[in-house]
Amino acid sequence: MGRPRTVVAALAVAALLGSAACGSRLPESDFERRAPSGGVPSGGGPPLRVGVITSATSPVGGSAFTGPRDGAKAYFARLNERGGIAGREVEVHTCDDGGSGVGNNACVHKLLDEQKVVALVATTVLDYAGAPRVSEAGVPDIGGQPIGSAYDTYPHLYGIYGSLAPRAGKPGWDGELYGGTEVYRYFKREQGARTAAVVSYNQAASAAYARLVKRGLEAEGYKVVTEQVDFALPNFRAVAADLKDQGADLVFDAMDTHGNARLCAAMDDVGAKVTAKVTNVQNWTATVADDYKDAPRCRNALWATGSSRNYEDTGHPAVRAFRDGMKKAGKGAGSLSQWQLEGWAAALWFTAAARSCAASGDDVTRACVDRFMSRGKPYDAEGLLLPVTYERRTEPPGTRRTCVSVARWKDDEGWVTQGDMNANCFRVPQLSYQP
Length: 435
Known about the structure:
Blueprint lengths: L2 H16 L9 E2 L18 E7 L12 H15 L8 E7 L4 H14 L4 E3 L9 H6 L4 E4 L12 E3 L17 E4 L1 H10 L3 E7 L2 H16 L3 E7 L6 H11 L3 E5 L2 H14 L5 E5 L7 H4 L4 H4 L2 E5 L10 H12 L9 H22 L6 H8 L25 E5 L1 E6 L3 E4 L7 E9 L2
Parallel strand pairs: 2-3, 2-4, 4-5, 5-6, 8-9, 8-10, 10-11, 11-12
Antiparallel strand pairs: 1-3, 7-16, 12-14, 13-16, 14-15
Helix pairs in contact: 1-6, 2-11, 2-12, 7-8, 12-13
């Protein structure tokens, strides 16, 4: 369901992939202080330290969560080349929490207590066990990926998609989060879709997320076909054949990229054609051609939805700046992703907050940065994000006007934007779910 779809999908896939893992590892921190390459003038003051916590190594895989970190680091490198913030270099300290709660708490301790960072930026972790400690310390956590409910639970935490929840120590409203049906409304209105299939594994987290998607589709009047495959021995061909027989217009899933690729290959094999095989922002990457190499027809029916501007939108100046910065960081066009762009946007957000402190004559402190973040005004990262709002509503919204960014994969063009994300907007019901 729109933004929560991204959150819950990532968490469901992380849970099913991590279900066989055991134990934990202490984090490997690659704290780094890069000397400014002639960009930051001397005498501007001591460096501003920021921290980036990432589950760079985890049961989910080595590169699953690193996109936002890479985008943020590329932005800060570009910023330092251009003079930093009021002549002060931004010193980036990264920490790999290993995908465990123990590792996450260790990273929080290192960054907050030892490195004394002024803020965390672009947090992307499997288990944000240290979130209460970050909140209690009053350290603003800016532009993190909400894999879990921390950004709808604690003050001083500002995820990349915003929140209307009270954030007083309990998720959402009395343990219930809410999400809209804008994604399903979009495909019904713009593509004329009427029948949707939801494919999941026979695993608790995957099945629970599939039920959530089914509720949203039914709220929008779809006929919903549910399909489940065995996690250990999946029969994707049987699922694909049934999708063809049922005449599904759309296919949603609660599976990992590998499972999606196998499903797509099976759909090609049996001749199942759909209007859209819909995925989320985590899979909005340039590696689609390789990931789905065995499914050319299904691959060209892939659509992605999210809340940020398509990284292929080179006509937009902020996207061009992002791509230039990533190129300097050694990330060519064939390795870009939407999560990298969102990490870049998170770094932009911190920079706007820090500059507001400097412009008012204040020192760039945790408290000053947090005042900017909590001011209640929407933020769009120079047009890279749908306006992000942080409020504290006592009651959850019944309906809400929400917008969605949509792109479609085409082999000869990559991800092609479908309409203006600031115009793909609908007033839709907000449905409750438990994190």
